[in-house]
Write a structure and sequence with these properties.
homodimer, Rossmann fold, about 30% helix, NAD (chain B), 2 domains, 10 helices, alpha/beta, Enoyl reductase (ER) domain-containing protein (chain B), Quinone Oxidoreductase, Chain A, domain 1, about 350 residues, zinc ion binding (chain B)
């Protein structure tokens, strides 16, 4: 489990939600490591559930990582600083902060080149074997804890993590005031990507999904138009025509936030010559795609892995009101055994649940 | 056929190699259009055969284009200016020039944005229905005829066209003094891409192919190391290890100059996190690929379609000696019915034939 002390005078035992096995979460004690000179100890107040957390719960695996021993779950979080290490100058006890989950090595070429999200030694909340943050308290480097503006809530702070995926995707795809955007998939990731694209200035955004309810949510959150699509590859040609119609012109960038053969096939066809497809979703590992015709139109495919240097921008977007993530939080739970189990059930079911949030 | 006059005093009838049907080339008269104010009339001296020319000969099709009526073949060419239009200031009769084949519209957003290679109204030598340049003479815009430096031969001028594919690929993949490069496929396109990568400063270049002879040519032309690979997808993992060994480090950029499922699978695995795969070859239209794992390592896939603004740089590379294309010209033929037929046979057979060149 953890190591070192128990975390703070009068704090009581530090408890966390542990992934003990398939479909088995238990709230148990979580020993915190000692506070290093550059660390802070944070009392968690808001923690969201991510699709990867659910995947680990169901399968003990996600994208090549395997849970081999009990692990604390959760990584989308915000809280209040309670103690700061001896070298910490940026924060004081009482500060409300949003946490960026991953600790990079800062010695490898990726880190030194600014692409620290690709660090092979990344230690990331709830990516095994690193413990997550669905806990009363965590210890974390101060430079990865970002102070919330006064008008940004702790729940919005926790939303910075999924929002960061959308922000990073928009940067990789070079979204701006002249790039129209198609978002495939209106789940939580499609929605934050849409919100980010709008904040980056995309002049027109079309969202496509198989689910009419999710599309109505997308419309209410600002999509210029929504298009219902099918799961069948044979429908690609007709759907691309409807999408281009809805866009009233060319599609400069497509975000595939589902990541299936059907959605990537649609994306590669829908993008204009010289445009970009940003693959965000991780639906299918292997896909049969008409890649060559797309490459011969210079449609580039860019990938995303998590994010880098996105918290300050997310907090600016939230503080200024350019992005409102509050409607994405559809379900709230407290931190008890029964509620943790129910929360993950609801999140796993999808449907009308977008973001399930714990209030601790 | 063509339209307008017959081309020049005392020139005799202008003849060209016409694609009349599958496997049927005939040298027949080719009427030239009238000389526009910004055009020049060029006497062809060197014309190379491209894989696309062979494909049209064998199937009357290439990449979505279909030959529906007799068409003059050939597009890799250089010659001597014989007559200039009234507004032409850049060239005079007697100038030796290399020709860029494609005439863009200069009114659409692609053209105005500098990506004129993506112009939907592009008129390109030997892409139906536009006639090619394997002829005694052609008429062409002066701005697409580039004067050869004194130390660059007409054959090297004709080689600017395939070399441009490699140069454009290197630009799209951002090759420079810090990017190692893997070239999949040691055919004519793989070889010009390798030569271009070296000219752009790539510090280490590994070339892979199934054919040992082609690899020895690549080695003699400057590959740092060559790796023999198989056509079998199950060998990808082992081959990637051998490739990375040969690279003595990470692979920053992979050029797939074959474009098959096997080569793209290898490319996606071999590229480092944050690296690029440039799909140049057009082997398979549809491919089953592990795209998601690559995207999750931020390995981007960039495509190329022909080239843009490459002739001046190609001529600079050839003139300075940074690139020597002469070894790529393995076979030479004159412009007669028998020789045209034989030349295309030899080119189609591949093997030890790299570039087959006509001298007119």
């Amino acid at each position: 489990m953890g190591k070192g002390g128990e975390g703070g005078v009068g704090a009581g035992k530090n408890m966390a939600a542990w992934l003990m096995g398939v479909n088995t979460l238990k709230i148990l004690p979580f020993e915190l490591p000692p506070l290093d000179a550059h660390d802070v100890r944070v009392r968690m107040k808001a923690v969201g559930i991510c699709g990867s957390d659910v995947h680990y719960l169901k399968t003990l695996r996600c994208a090549g990582f395997v849970v081999k021993e009990p692990m604390v779950i959760g990584h989308e979080c915000a809280g209040i600083v309670e103690e700061v290490g001896s070298e910490v100058k940026s924060l004081v006890a009482g500060d409300r902060v949003a946490l960026e989950p991953g600790i990079s090595c800062w010695r490898c070429s990726h880190c030194k080149g600014g692409r620290y999200n690709l660090c092979p030694d990344m230690k990331f909340f709830a990516t095994p074997p690193v413990h997550g943050s669905l806990a009363n308290q965590v210890v974390h480097p101060a430079d990865l804890c970002f102070k919330l503006p006064a008008n940004v809530s702790l729940e919005e702070g926790a939303m910075c993590e999924p929002l960061s995926v959308g922000v990073h995707a928009c940067r990789r795809a070079e979204i701006g005031p002249e790039t129209t955007a198609l978002v495939m998939g209106a789940g939580p990731i499609g929605l934050v990507t849409m919100l980010a694209a709008r904040a980056f200035g995309a002049p027109r955004i079309v969202v496509a999904d198989v689910d009419g309810h999710r599309l109505s949510v997308a419309k209410s959150l600002g999509a210029d138009e929504v298009v219902v699509v099918s799961p069948h590859v044979q429908d690609v040609e007709a759907e691309v025509a409807r999408i281009q119609n809805a866009m009233r012109g060319e599609v400069d960038v497509v975000f595939d936030c589902a990541g299936f053969t059907k959605t990537m096939s649609t994306a590669l066809s829908a993008a204009r010559a010289g445009g970009k497809v940003c693959l965000v979703g991780m639906g299918h590992n292997e896909m049969t795609l008409p890649l060559t015709p797309a490459a011969a139109r210079e449609v580039d495919v860019v990938g995303v892995f998590r994010y880098k240097n996105t918290w300050p921008l997310c907090l600016e977007f939230l503080s200024s009101g350019k992005i409102d993530v509050k409607p994405l939080i559809t379900h709230r739970y407290g931190f008890s055994q029964r509620e943790v189990e129910e929360a993950f059930d609801v999140s796993a079911r999808g449907g009308s649940a977008i973001k399930v949030m714990f209030n601790l």
